[in-house]
């Protein structure tokens, strides 16, 4: 067996290959042994005789043939066992992977399937499952794609791999993944195709959930990014407007101090008729320009939210109806004015004069946006959903000016409230109308909103805080026709302003004691005798006008006080404290003095609230 050769022993007692006593106790005298199995023998087939002798080649051949048959039988048994074990492992593997097997005949489209495959399609594992059943189960929208994949694999000999949807007899929707390869004939043709199927419904559901989650996440990221960009843009615009407001407020303060002596001096020259007709015409023109500059400064202060305001309950209906004629005249004959006032509106807390100026500016802007005519609607309603306008919860009145004009694009709408921004061209406006209205609304605790699209007109809304009930409007003090004699302590740190104001007071018949600061005014007070009136600037180095007035009134109770302010940051000024805004003419000064000297309320009580 070691040499894979048949061994012939003619006599076991004389053959040196056989141990001497190997067969002594047996009948064996001669033998033949043939190995069983190739290439490695696994056994041997032996024939034994009781007589010695050489038995011839026929016997040897017959024994070798029997050994060969025995080897073939053993090998077949081994192969059958291996195949059975392989099939068991294959079945175990397919079952573990929930894969069903199938085979398709290329000619007759005869389909053979495993029980697992039929269960995957929702079928009875013991019932037949034909190719027609298979095609009927595939979703209609996937049938052409599945049929094309099968035909391509059979025609080209390539791998078959496709995912498709099916509907089970119970009505369930499933996803199936099929993989297969064509079975080739010896001559090179395609006999059919065999492969496996697996239910991938769970994977598809998870993929769809992930896709939706990714899409939702992407959408949320886009929304948050857009919100962040909008917030950053709004913050940038707010910071820019705040910086511009601080700048314009400071410029307005200095401008008012410069305009006060200019307007005062021109007013005095005009009243005294200094010079001839030509000189008076020049003085009148300069005075008119100075008044226009004062209006410009007021608009700057309105944008900067630093204009002096006297908020009071205002009836929106009465205010709008009272301005209707003026607005209609401003608009001209080509534009129709329409009023839309809601009934039973609450009063708005506002400065009526400033609101009238804002509405007039908005009407002028609307008129310029309708060069071919149109309709302007001024409405007043209760403010619904203040949060949408960026306001705190509460009651609001919304006064809205809506036109049918050219409208604004996004960039124009974004920059509309910037001071000096205008689309009207050079010389056709200051660009302060919307910025003034914007600043006024914010200063009153409200907001200005703009809705506009190109070609669809513009709607500008003033959101104003609503009050409970109306209060009688204070009548403007009448201008006295004669000066009231007395001594005035005049305090102002600006020499030109103080000198101009002193000239006006002297011209009115007052005796004037001047001081550059609060400390100097207190020293002059101690030196002077009777003082009939204190006229003081508010913002001064070291001591404000209110602080000075409080100190002087403490020393001399009941002394009338008039505070002059050229700046809206009059911190500590009570709303009802008598004051005069710079710049002013002599008539303005006289009206303010008349109101102070004739007023019943003592200044010390008002200063106590300042």
TrEMBL record:
This is histidine kinase. NCBIfam families: sensory_box (TIGR00229). Residues 207-241 form a coiled coil. CDD domains: HisKA (cd00082), PAS (cd00130). Residues 487-597 form the Response regulatory domain. GO terms for molecular function: phosphorelay sensor kinase activity. Residues 250-468 form the Histidine kinase domain. PROSITE patterns: HIS_KIN (PS50109), PAC (PS50113), RESPONSE_REGULATORY (PS50110). PANTHER family: SENSOR HISTIDINE KINASE, TWO-COMPONENT SENSOR PPRA. Keywords: Coiled coil, Phosphoprotein, Plasmid. The modification 4-aspartylphosphate is found at residue 537. It catalyses: ATP + protein L-histidine = ADP + protein N-phospho-L-histidine. Its EC number is 2.7.13.3. Residues 160-212 form the PAC domain.
């Amino acid at each position: 067996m070691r040499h894979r050769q048949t061994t012939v022993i003619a006599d076991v007692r004389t053959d040196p290959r056989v141990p001497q006593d190997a067969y002594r106790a047996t009948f064996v005298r001669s033998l033949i042994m043939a190995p069983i199995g190739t290439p490695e023998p696994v056994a041997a087939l032996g024939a034994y005789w009781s007589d010695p002798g050489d038995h011839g080649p026929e016997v040897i051949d017959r024994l070798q043939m029997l050994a060969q048959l025995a080897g073939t039988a053993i090998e077949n048994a081994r192969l059958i066992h291996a195949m059975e074990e392989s099939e068991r492992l294959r079945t175990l593997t397919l079952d573990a992977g929930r894969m069903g097997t199938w085979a398709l005949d290329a000619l007759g489209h005869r389909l053979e399937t495993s029980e697992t495959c039929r269960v995957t399609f929702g079928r009875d594992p013991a019932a037949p499952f034909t190719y027609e059943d298979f095609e009927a189960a595939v979703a209609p929208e996937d049938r052409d794609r599945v049929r094309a994949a099968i035909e391509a694999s059979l025609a080209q000999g390539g791998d078959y791999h496709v995912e498709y949807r099916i509907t089970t007899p119970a009505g369930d929707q499933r996803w199936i993944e099929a993989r297969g390869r064509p079975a080739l004939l010896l001559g090179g043709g395609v006999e059919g195709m065999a492969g496996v199927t697996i239910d991938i419904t769970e994977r598809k559901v998870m993929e769809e959930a992930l896709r939706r989650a990714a899409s939702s996440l992407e959408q949320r990221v886009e929304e948050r990014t857009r919100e962040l960009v909008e917030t950053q843009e709004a913050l940038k615009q707010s910071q820019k407007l705040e910086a511009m407001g601080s700048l314009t407020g400071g410029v307005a303060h200095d401008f008012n101090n410069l305009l006060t002596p200019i307007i005062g001096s021109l007013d005095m020259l005009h009243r005294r008729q200094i010079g001839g007709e030509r000189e008076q015409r020049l003085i009148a023109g300069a005075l008119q320009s100075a008044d226009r500059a004062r209006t410009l400064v007021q608009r700057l202060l309105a944008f900067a939210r630093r204009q002096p305001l006297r908020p009071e309950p205002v009836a929106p209906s009465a205010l709008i109806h009272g301005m209707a004629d003026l607005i209609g005249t401003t608009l001209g004959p080509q534009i129709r004015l329409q009023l839309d006032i809601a009934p039973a509106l609450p009063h708005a807390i506002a400065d009526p004069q400033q609101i009238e100026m804002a509405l007039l500016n908005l009407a002028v802007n609307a008129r310029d946006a309708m060069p071919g005519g149109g309709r302007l609607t001024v409405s007043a309603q209760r403010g619904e959903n203040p949060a949408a306008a960026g306001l705190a919860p509460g009651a609001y009145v919304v006064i809205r000016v809506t036109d049918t004009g050219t409208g604004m694009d996004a960039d124009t709408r974004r920059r509309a409230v910037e001071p000096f921004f205008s689309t009207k061209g050079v010389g056709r406006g200051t660009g302060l109308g919307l910025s003034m209205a914007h600043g006024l609304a914010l200063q009153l605790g409200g907001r200005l909103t703009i809705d506009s699209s190109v070609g669809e007109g513009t709607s500008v809304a003033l959101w104003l805080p609503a009050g409970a009930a109306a209060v009688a409007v204070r009548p403007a003090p009448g201008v006295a026709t004669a000066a009231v004699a007395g001594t005035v302590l005049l305090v102002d740190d600006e020499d030109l302003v103080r000198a101009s104001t002193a000239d006006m007071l002297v011209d009115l018949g007052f005796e004037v004691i001047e001081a550059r600061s609060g400390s100097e005014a207190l020293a002059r007070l101690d030196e002077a005798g009777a003082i009939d009136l204190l006229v003081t600037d508010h913002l001064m180095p070291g001591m404000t006008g209110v602080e000075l007035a409080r100190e002087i009134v403490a020393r001399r109770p009941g002394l009338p006080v008039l505070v002059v302010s050229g700046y809206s940051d009059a911190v500590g000024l009570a709303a009802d404290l008598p004051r005069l805004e710079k710049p002013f003419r002599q008539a303005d000064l006289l009206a303010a003095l008349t109101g102070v000297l004739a007023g019943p309320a003592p200044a010390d009580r008002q200063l106590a609230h300042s």
